[in-house]
Fold:
Amino acid sequence: MPVTITLYDLCGTDRSLRFSPHCWRVQMALAHKGLDYETVPTAFTEIAAIEDGRSKTVPVLNDNGVIVSESFDIAVYLDDTYPDLPALFGHDGVVAAARLILNWANATIHPILGRMMIKDIHDVLAPADQAYFRQSREKRFGKTLEEAQTGLDANAEALSDALMPARVTLGHHDWLGGGGPLFTDYILFGSLIWLVTVAGRLPLPEDDAVAVWFERCLDLHDGLARKTKRAA
Ligand SMILES: N[C@@H](CCC(=O)N[C@@H](CS)C(=O)NCC(=O)O)C(=O)O
Structure:
């Protein structure tokens, strides 16, 4: 059967480098459902041209003509559209809990990851994207990328502290989804694989429950994320 699902996925100047946390959440969701899909590498400055400019951000999914943007909405769409395939949520209570994890990760974890690697992200982009990224992010942060990036190790303790809720949860359950991975897992995993693809490593002790869980996530779906390219 021809592949009918297309995922527009952020890329670097090396178009095989895929690092967006939001796109990773969707890639893992598609793999979890066992759906065949192809990714289209998309630079920041190419987003406006995809699917008639339907979204200002990626990921964008085209499922046989149905266009969906926003990573969380895409996961909900996949469960609604393919209810017989493995569930990403299972029931409405999980959707609500997943929204909490999404907002926690985006609001608490991402700013720390930004301080770790915002200039490194710039450096993996193509020249046109670099100019856009520098201008838009320096405006957002009110400082240069060089000032905003204070480093991986300098922020390791802050990241470890911020991950405490996940660490405690993973002391009780193998997965944030309980007995098996759910979209809740892919949300936090997307954040951390972003760091690993750009900066090369997760600055946590090997026996940290989050690091152990992260390794298990890397093995999921035939090692999809373990096989992906890393910039550093
Ligand atoms: N809420 C969106 C956020 C997506 C997002 O911010 N994507 C970034 C790439 S990681 C993007 O496309 N940014 C476009 C830009 O900064 O111009 C989602 O979850 O899909």
